[in-house]
Structures are given as C-alpha cells and as structure tokens.
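Model: Ready when you are.
Researcher: Fold this.
Model:
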Amino acid sequence: MFLICTLGFLLGMLVPFCEAFEPSTVVRINQPALDYVAQMGHSYFKTALKIRLPDILDPKEGYFQQIPVFIVDNDISNFNLTFIPNYGIRLSGAGHINMTVFLKTNLQKLRVGIDIGADIVITQSTIGSPFVGVSFCKSKIKEISVTYREDGLKELWKPMAGYIRIILPDKLCSRLQFLIEGLNVYMGTLLGLHPLGPESQISYSLTQLPTITKEHMSLNISVTFYLLGKPIVLPPRVSSFSLPQQVGAKNAMVNFALPKELFDSIYFLMQKSGSINLDITGQLNSKNNQLTTSVLGNLIPEVRRQFSKSMPITLKARINATPVPTIQRNKTSLLLNYHLEVLAVSSNSAFNSLFSMDMIVNLKLNMIVSAMKLQANVSLLNDIELKVTSSNVGDFDLSKVNPFIISAVKSPLIEHLNSLFGLGAILPTVASVNYNTPQVFMYEGYIVVSCGLQFQK
C-alpha cells in the first residue's frame, strides 16, 4: 500500500478541469523521492510475492499427482526506481525467493535467483486524471538450488526446474503490475476541494504529461479556485514561469514551486470573498475604549457638536483594489488598499458616516509550512498610511486623527489577517504521506517549498 500511496503522490494531483483561466504551479519530484519509495516500498512487493503457484503434475506410478508449490519468503535486496528521460520510471529488482514443494508427506525447498525490470508510463485517463501502467516487464530466472530435499524426490528436479523457468517469470510480472495498476484506484482519493478560507476552496489538476529528465520529474499543475463551491473566473494574465534547475534545498525529495501569479489569484479570491474586510466596533461599557464620539470629539470639534452624548464608533475597512504581493529573494510582502469608513451610532441606532479614508497597509509575510499547508504570519512592514477622501464633519487636523485611527485599527487588523492567513493553502498531497522537514525559499517572483516524504501507517 505504501508503494501505491507514494507513487500516487508522485504521479498526479487529480481534480476536474475548469475552462476559466487558472494559475499553475510546478511540483518537481527528485531522485531522492524515488530512493525513498524504493527503500520503504519494496517490502510491499516482497509481501505480494508470498503466493501459491499453480500446481504441477507429477507422473508417478502411472498417474498424475497434483503437487502444491508455494513462495514462502524472499530476499529482494536490490529494488530501485530511476527516471527514464522523456518517458517514465524504471523499476529494477534482484534477489532470491524461497519456494516449498509438497508431495504427500515429503517436502522440497528451493532457492531461486531472480532479476526483474519494468518500465512505468504515465498517461491521462478519459476523465483527465493521470493513469499509471506498466509498458514493459521482464523477469529472469537465474540459479535454482535445492536447500532441502527429502527422500524420494530426486526425480522431481528436472521437471521442477523447467516448471519454475516457465511459470515464475510471468507470475513475478503479474504481481508487480497488479501493485502498480492498483495505484489508479487509490489516486481517486486526490479528487475534491480543499478549504482555503471561510467560504473558498482550492483544487489541483494535472494539465499535461510530466516532463521527465534523468534527475527529476516535473508536474505542471493547474490550480482552480472556488467561492461557495463554484469556480471563479480570474482576471486574465500572462504567465511565463519556468522553474530553474537548481532551487530549494539540496537533495530535497520534492520541490513545490509557487509563482507570483498563484498568490495574485489567492488574494484576488480573498478580495472577492470579502474575507480580508474588517469591521471594528467600539463598546461603551468596555474599559479603556477609545472608539467613542467623545474621544474623537476631542480631536474633531464637529463630532463633539453633533454628538452631545457619547456613542460608539465603527470602522469599516473594505478592500477597494486587488491585493498586490511582491516576492523577492528572502522577502515577501503584500500591499493592501482599503477604503476605511468611520461611522457613529446615533441615538436611533442608525449609522452616520463621519468621514472616509484611503488606508494603505504594507505587510511583511513570513511563509511557513505546517500540517501540509502553506501558511503566513503577518506583521507591518511600514506604518499604516491614511488619506481623507470625504468628510461630513468638516475639515480637521489629520496629524491629530491619524494616531487615533491607527491605534484603533492596527491590532485588530493584524490579528484578523494572521487568523485568515494562518488557515493556509493546502499543498497537493495524498493520504498517508506527510511532508517531512519542509523548508521555504523565496526567489525573485516565486516561492519554493522543499520537503521530504514520510509515510504514516
């Protein structure tokens, strides 16, 4: 099962296609990942070889007698996976299998040397998902030796050796093919939507066949975003992202390359969903509450005149432009443009607009990977910038009001954004395989996540 699970991760991320513009990402599978699969997965192949072979017929005393033949265990010490450039993956194995032959109360034990090789190809099924198959398999029987023989069975040696050389090669290949093609059933677990925010989801699809070199296999994966379960149409853009040869951690099993266009789309989705918006409301019975007309009236005389009785103030921050991420070497930032409206609750519980402002928030993003998700911790990169756009309380001294607004907005906004970005975007993954020791690297225009793979039983 581990071989199936992990190769499923390596060979595809499945979801339905969407005709709208979709950003893409690159998942690069490196040779150390195949080494890990070979190291951990060959025991499943060894287990699959513990089978009963078809009975052989023993001509003795004028009649045929059925003789059960079992493969009881094996020692396949060499089990390797390597890339075949522009084609697929080559599997090779070598070792010995131990067989038992029963005839009445007598027993014979054999040790058989084997070599097996197979080429694994990756195509697409009719539903658009990757399909893994064995295009070529060949097994070779080497030496056959008797490790234990009871009396009366010497005459079986020649027919037994011939039987093994005829039957066993096909059996070895059929068991290997069964394991690999079983992957296509398991890959169905990759279908579906993954939560991205309170009302949004993300999904992945393999848009073309992998690009395979001697050192790695690259999967170009399309990303589709959903709002309330429906795919959203993203603003058209041109992407020419190409992943350089040497990126991320040296000897990483897997590299996820996440270009700026992907983050553009994520933040556009957040804008569409309204999840970046924020309302901050003062409460009169709260200690040290500054969001009241009496406090603001000390800074703006017209507010004090309009509200003789102290009333709570509400700040409504609404994104009025698509967030702009910037990815540079060792630094990622996000520029947010808000329309901030300052309202007061009147005596009849209606909201009166006092004034509105443009608010520019420049954030520093600290990218991390946790629980299979790419997350971010945010902090202010620069001071919040404010500019008055309209006023119903006349002209006022902005230098006095700015500290009041910034003080009221700063902590709730950062707390809200940290909670939102802490939800994270799940990376393409498969059940039972976790990312081990992930590292995040920032380059000009894209982010790379390097990680190992860890199988969870």
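Researcher: Now this one.
Model:
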Amino acid sequence: MPYTLVRPHKPAQLRPVLFVPTLLGKILRDKLCVNKGFEKCPSELLREVERVAQKGSFAQGKGELNSCGATRQGLQLLMEKNVHQLLDLGLTSVRALHAMGIYPILLLVSINEKNAKKLKKALQRLGATEEQLLDCVRREEAQLEQVPCLYGTIAPHTWSDTDVLVSSVRAAVADEQKKTVWIEQDLL
C-alpha cells in the first residue's frame, strides 16, 4: 500500500460508530441501545449523509454546500449528546463524513462459519441468513482497503454469543475512542 500523508486529530467528543459488516451492525445497534452510552442515529440524517456521499463532491453547487453544512450541523448536535451515535451507513459514506470533519469509529467484527451460526436467531429476525452475513463480511472487508482511516477489529475467537459480542464491542469502542485519529491530508 502506498504511503499517504496524514495528520493527527484528537477528538474532543464521543465519535459515532460504524460497524462492518453492516448486516451485523443492525443486530448490534439494537442490543447496544439498551445500555447507556449508545444511541441510534436518526434515519433522516443518515439518508442525507448517504445522499451527500453519493454526489462525491462537496463543492458541486450552492445547494450541495448548504445540504452538507446542514448534515454536518445535525451530526455535530447529536455528537454533543455525549453518547456514541450508531450509524447505519455503508463504507462509501466514510469519506463524506471525513470531509464534514466527523471521524467515525470503524469496527470490523470478523466472523467465521462457527460464529455465524451463533447469530442465526438474530439474523432470522432481520430476514437474513448466515450465508448472506458471510457474503456481506467478505464484500465489506474488501472495501475496507479503500477507506481513508484505520479501523478496529474484533476477532472471531473472542466472542461466543451475542452478549459476549456486545461486551467486546463496548470495550473496543472505548479503546478506539481513546486513540488518536490519523486523517489523510488529501481530504482537507
């Protein structure tokens, strides 16, 4: 991988969280919101972030700048609540978030066939299968190489059921929050 110029950033607020694979993120969001410290990000704000990310450029037109500013302001207000906002976004939105000055915690939960079976009931509630989860993992792990930041990982051998996984996620988010965020200078 080629070198990229970066600069350090120490976030003053709790950072939003984005899970890989996104399918597993839907299960984790419901379980994490039961406890204090986590909250689901409103869907209307997420749709706006995705719309801005799909445009690809933040200086295309006057309307685009206004919408990007409104989206950033909305996310900043949520971050000031002193809870981790749980984002239901794809990895394609990370660059858009960085361009807005918002640096989410990316957390890869590695899954193998054995762990996927432990999530069978939760996946059925979403109308998904173990195969779909494993496909999602493979596809999104490949996309992680294009993301302009580092990410945390939870290994498959560290959790045995969803309760242990939620505990592992809480610990990993707390650990990632303490770290310095390295930001590509190209995005500035």
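Researcher: Key takeaway?
Model: The CA atoms of residues 116 and 181 lie 31 Å apart.
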